Amino acid sequence: IAATQPSTNWHLKENARDHHTSKFSSKELIVRRGQAFIVTFHGTEQPEQNLTFIAETGPKPSKLAKTQATFGISSTVSKESWSAVLQSTSSNSVSISISSPPNAVIGRYKLSVQSTSSESSSPASLGTFVLLFNPWSSGDDVFMPNKAECDEYVLEEFGIIFAGNKNRINSFGWNFGQFQEDILNICLSMLDRSLNYRQDPATDVSHRNDPKYLGRVLSAMVNANDDQGVLLGNWSGNYDGGKSPSSWTGSGEILQNWKKSGFKPVRYGQCWVFAAVLTTVLRCLGIPTRTITNFSSAHDADGNLRVDEFYDASGNHLDRAADSIWNFHVWNESWFSRSDLGPSYSGWQVLDATPQEESGGIYQCGPASRNAIKEGDVDLDYDCPFVFAEVNADCMYWNYDPATGKKTLMFSKSTVIGQFISTKAVGRDDRVDVTNDYKYEEGSKKERDIFKKARKKLGLEDKFDPTAPTPQEIDQKPDISGKFKVAGPLEVGKDLNLILVLANLQSDAKTVHVNMTAWSTVYTRRPVHEIWKDSIPVTLSPKEEKQFPIKISYTAYQQQLTTDNTIQVTALCHVEGGIQVLVQRDITLDNPAIDIQVLGEAKVNKEVDVEVIFTNPIDMEVMDCVLQVEGNDLLRGVLEIAIPPLKASEKSSTKFKLIPFETGPKHLLVNFSCDKFADIKNFKMVNVID
């Protein structure tokens, strides 16, 4: 006879508090592996020693695959397997403490109870619960001994992402929102939509105890390539048919949109959006994760640890090489042990969800041990050569003649790539520099030795490379030097003033013909629109230095600027009788400021007014103004407010109400866009009191 359906008390509040899952807004029990949780159920007539419990997950639960566990009541907790310990009994209820092993498969489980005394009875379902990774438990692969780091890298829903370029680092806030409603379910369905699951569901689920495996699978699922994943990348500068990548302020909207559309890729993402969404998913599942920004980041498409850039005689940056140097690139680090490589490679692991190069036939990247990158151990799993190149590649700058196909090396640099590698501080909104965790000091002997070691491991030392410059080319010395100096504010809406400084390094006079161009670019330094060009003849007496002022007016660049606000200025100097000299600078213009004021005290469940103030800094009208606002525990979803056009120099004040629903420090994020300014961002910490 089937047992009557028992009713279950999951002790949601106490279990959530003990398991650091209180922030999830769910009616379902969410607990972490390797740690006990309490369940009370009523309506079993059996004496407790006759009860057997069954915990199972995935489409084909099996003991062999460790996706099913059967266990009776015992007197002690087992470290290796699932176990149940009796807490208390009354006439018709039993309270038990259930523990899972620290290497249990994560995901949604079904829990049933069966009486052992009557063989015929079928198990009675107690309901479902979700099991997550446990960085607070020393037996877990993701164990993180420092509690403040657990709070930041698993429980913190607000992040700061660094961008801009190496000369001018800027930052913006992001709402990871990993505990928002339904996000956990979306993360679990992401796993069930992966290529691995589609090919072999049972095997895929059995591997879900391993953070290496899940990190790699999710790095593929966050981009749309191969598997109809979450985000479609677009680096064209034209974002029709979707939202421009720089307009997002959080992951929640992206993940919710993906689900609502029937899991069609959300348009559009660029590197920080991919990285932010992967942070949300991994933190949600309990793997400590952070975003990392690498400035002057190499994309080495052909695996030779060298990036080639080509310029024509006029100084135009040619978009002809698969290799590129991005102003910045954002990826992830997740914290877990590497039993496959050994203890010295445990700790932070690089994962990258931006679709750049295929790995194992699909767009995924990592986990690459950060220690392996620093030590040049590029033969270790996974994708170490690509990540090593991102922070270490050598750069070659070539002059290329499209008519003849002839290329000549202008100069090479080994210290350009991988600078100011940045992440948010633990518990503070500051930038922390982690460059020294990726490589030894630039220019030191140790750093060059590691580079040689990596080349050797990749078989590049012994192989003749016909595309490489000759030693004679590398050793040639230029007759002049040049640089662009900034002379004035770098702000959208103002003219751009620069000075080209040229110096004769020789003791005889030099005649130089200078071709200059300025292009708007995407942050990957891909040229989009020509803004300006000019050419000047220059004569330099021996050892002379000359300055040439350059002015690019706002009206000249205003129509051409991309949402990245980046301009690349180039001067190609043709020196009579000498080698050509390339002078180049990437400029990121700052947006005007936007100000957020909270008017009065923010209290739980009480209305509070917020005012957002923006002044139009230019002498023309701005239209199509939209303000979007989001903030965990302050408002649900994303608030969009249309703002009337603003005349020249006009100030706008937009007021709206919030009703906070949790106490503590919360972050309000705003994004303002109009036809002349893209995605002006700011955030404000709001301390919500009782």
**Strand fraction:** 35-45%
Look at the structure and give the CATH class of the largest domain: Alpha Beta
Helix content: 10-25%
Low-confidence segments: none
Mean pLDDT: 95
> What number of domains?
4
CA-CA gap between termini: 53 Å
Rg on CA atoms, Å: 29 Å
Structural class: alpha+beta
Shape: globular
SS field, number of helical segments: 14
Reported by name, the CATH topology of the largest domain is: Coagulation Factor XIII, Chain A, domain 2
Number of strands: 38
Strand order of the largest sheet: 1-3-7-6-5-4-8-9-2
Pfam family, one: Transglut_N
Catalytic activity: L-glutaminyl-[protein] + L-lysyl-[protein] = [protein]-L-lysyl-N(6)-5-L-glutamyl-[protein] + NH4(+)
EC number: 2.3.2.13
Binding site for Ca(2+): 392, 394, 442, 447
Compile the SSE list and pairings.
Blueprint: E1 7-9, H1 12-18, E2 29-32, E3 36-42, E4 51-57, E5 68-74, E6 83-89, E7 93-99, E8 107-115, E9 124-132, H2 147-155, E10 158-165, E11 168-175, H3 183-192, H4 195-199, H5 201-206, H6 211-221, E12 231-233, H7 251-260, E13 266-269, H8 271-285, E14 289-299, E15 306-311, E16 317-318, E17 324-336, E18 347-351, E19 368-369, H9 370-375, H10 384-392, E20 394-401, E21 406-413, E22 419-424, E23 431-433, H11 435-438, H12 445-457, H13 471-475, E24 480-486, E25 496-504, E26 510-521, E27 527-540, E28 545-552, H14 554-557, E29 566-575, E30 581-588, E31 595-599, E32 602-603, E33 608-615, E34 625-630, E35 639-643, E36 651-658, E37 664-673, E38 680-689
Parallel strand pairs: 2-9, 5-6, 12-13, 15-20, 32-38
Antiparallel strand pairs: 1-3, 3-7, 4-5, 4-8, 6-7, 8-9, 10-11, 14-17, 14-22, 15-16, 17-18, 18-19, 20-21, 22-23, 24-25, 25-28, 26-27, 26-29, 29-30, 31-33, 33-36, 34-35, 34-37, 37-38
Helix pairs in contact: 7-8
